[in-house]
Amino acid sequence: MPTLALAGGGAMPVIGLGTWQVRDCAALVASALRVGYRHIDTARSYGNEEEVGEAIRASQVPREQLFVTTKVWYEDLRAAAFARSVDASLKALKLSHVDLLLIHWPTMQAVPLEETVAALGKAKADGLARNIGVANFNIAMVEQAVRACPEPLAVVQAEYHPELNQAKLLGVCRRLGLAFTAYCPLGRGRVFPNPALEAIARARGKSIAQVVLRWLIQQGVAAIPRSSDPRRVAENFDIFDFQLSAEEMALISALGRRDGRIVDPPMAPAWD
Question: 134 to each of 77, 210, 231, 237, how far by Cα in Å?
């Protein structure tokens, strides 16, 4: 599977399985691993790390072939709480380390970002995470985190799909040498009734989901689509046998809307 090179070494598979709110997570992760997924995305707040770990162990896929991501919730960004969260995640997953550890959201509390990224960097220095990064940060926060972290940041994870233009954030990631992972890459289904996407999908003999995921990876972006249907999970992985034209890429990129953002909870920062 194609991968994205990460700062400081290592690589991240371009397609992963998102597991937020997935029922029967162990069975679904097991199914994804059989299809060929090697990138699994979870988080402490999802409450399913034990099931993810169970599926990984049952799969017998060698650990070095897997890329496992987890995240620390915004209520645990003080240094001591951060360390406890990482420890709890590793115990739940029954892993000695994760391949990527992310700050899930910036804090609403009076926690200096410098304190949090120091804890993030310590997790990497201690061998508990091969790579580190941030999720749901705006551009100023990303730049501040890069400056403050004692270890190199590798990844920014953020919402990205055709209806949400993330050109500014993606440009900053490229300038700083950070990989970009798109969550909600299919806009939670909002992209499906689009006539332009339907036309491209028909011409390519692919589904709209496959076209959108292909659009992302051709930008050098990783994607972690979520589905509770094993058939959809397999379909989302089947995107490596075709390529979109420059015209098709531009057509999809032009679908961005001002109201395209889906994930905007109270703890969200001021978006760019």
Answer: 12, 26, 31, 25
Closest CA to 152 of 135, 138, 133, 139: 133
Domains of the chain with CATH codes: 3-190+220-229 (3.20.20.100)
Strand partners of residue 18 = 41
Catalytic pick among 46, 74, 160, 183: 46
Q: Is 148 helix (H, G, I), strand (E, B) or coil?
A: helix
pLDDT digits (tens, 9 = 90+) for 112-136: 999 999 999 999 999 999 999 999 9
Residue 148: φ, ψ to 5°: -90, -25
The predicted model scores a pTM of 0.97
Radius of gyration of the chain (CA): 18
pLDDT digits (tens, 9 = 90+) for 2-58: 999 999 789 999 999 999 988 789 999 999 999 999 999 999 999 999 999 999 999
- Per-residue DSSP letter, 162: T
Phi, psi of 36 (to 5 degrees): 135, -5
For the question of residue 46 being annotated catalytic, the response is yes
The structure tokens 């996407």 sit at 197
Backbone angles phi, psi at 105, to 5 degrees: -145, 150
Of 78, 82, 166, 46, the residue nearest 69 (C-alpha): 46
